[in-house]
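STRUCTURE REQUEST FORM
Protein name: Tyrosine-type recombinase/integrase
Source organism: Hominibacterium faecale
Requested output: structure tokens
Priority: standard
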Amino acid sequence: KVRFLKIQHTVFVDDSRDLTEAEYHRLLDAAKRKKDSRLYHVMLAICTTGIRVSELSFLTVEALHKGKAEIRMKGKIRTILLTKELCRKLNAYAKEKGIRTGYLFCTRTGKPLDRSNICHDMKKLCRAARVNPEKVFPHNLRHLFAKCYYAIKKNLAYLADILGHASVDTTRIYVAMGTREHERTLQRMHLIS
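Status: completed
Returned output:
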């Protein structure tokens, strides 16, 4: 008779895949230096709202005027608030690119950007930003949003709603602490005499 092991979900995650705030800012700076305004604003939008790449098409000029984006996917609707600062930056981007209505981010042919477009462009920034390429992919910006939000708000259920997760268990993965952070927490406990 074969018995299966039960594996408890991990309390902490591998640091080698976690994008830090400092690394994120270096990626933004590298995009600015390369004068890749679209990539700079895409990364900014994903990381400050927590939206998925597939939801970028809901970030429109009209959404900026309302200060919120209505995400309609899989028969569900959720509202993403856009801060005044983000709206200001994205409006300036739209003006710079001559975008008066519709999608803010699209290909030269007018189609919405997809994950591979963005990932490819982000990987080009790694060397200039001094960031490990294994950490650089669009979904990691969403994870960084979740970690930063949770560090301030500490409400997993609310964060799950913002991210559009059906289960809080999915959100828990996003905010799991890294190995180094877990180690620092254990050391701060000062329980060894």
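Reviewer notes: Strands lie at 12-13, 68-73, 76-81, 177-178. The chain is about 50% helix and 10% strand.
Form closed.
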